[in-house]
């Protein structure tokens, strides 16, 4: 059996924060429950919520999963060039906590200590990853792999207010740093993540489970589905699990169909955050700088996630 992959998870985790997405929490749980992953570091970034809230909720979930020893570092409080876009709120009974800064330094130190062995899974805006690349010239070359939950390539967001997928839209300058780094990352975008979902009935069953994480996650997921049904997706009875699919790609790459592409990101204007994918294969086409997911085996992913959650 192969040794587990060393993984750092970079996240804007907001599971439990009122009115916030819950998929980051499942991504953290999957990274802990997958026997093929050795989660060495969790770094937090501004995105779904502010960094202080993301850090506190990450520590809360690690406690609930019985893994308080996992190192957590707080990271970028705002995008590279702009103000922070969201502030969070903690659920009742959860008090603000902090960790040593700074995430980008911790990422660089981990990669320097294990050259060629660390997979960074970035499921929030790419600010921390970009800062690590800018701070340490050897960081990009020292990465074992980079998996990004971000982008939309064969579809659209369906929103003129947010034309780019959220993680890229929040900090497109950071995405450009990553795309120009010579790291050919795996990009798991909305084309595939929208196809993996959790139903309200499943969330309600989780909420009734006595496990400290499972019950917390179930309540948060039920509240998030209710929020989506009342705002963005009237009548929906489910929500997508964007971020766990990126974590699954580390040990289960066959869940995804991947193809090479050259990506460019739009920094501003009516196409802010849009990733333009050149899929050409001719001799004069630009060099591949990314691998993008174009299909997913959703039932196989659901089975993998369920099996890993049972190990918590």
TrEMBL record:
This is Inosine-uridine nucleoside N-ribohydrolase. Residues 8-302 form the Inosine/uridine-preferring nucleoside hydrolase domain. PANTHER family: INOSINE-URIDINE PREFERRING NUCLEOSIDE HYDROLASE (PTHR12304), URIDINE NUCLEOSIDASE (PTHR12304:SF4). Keywords: Glycosidase, Hydrolase. Coiled coil: none annotated. The keyword Cell membrane does not apply. GO terms for biological process: purine nucleoside catabolic process.
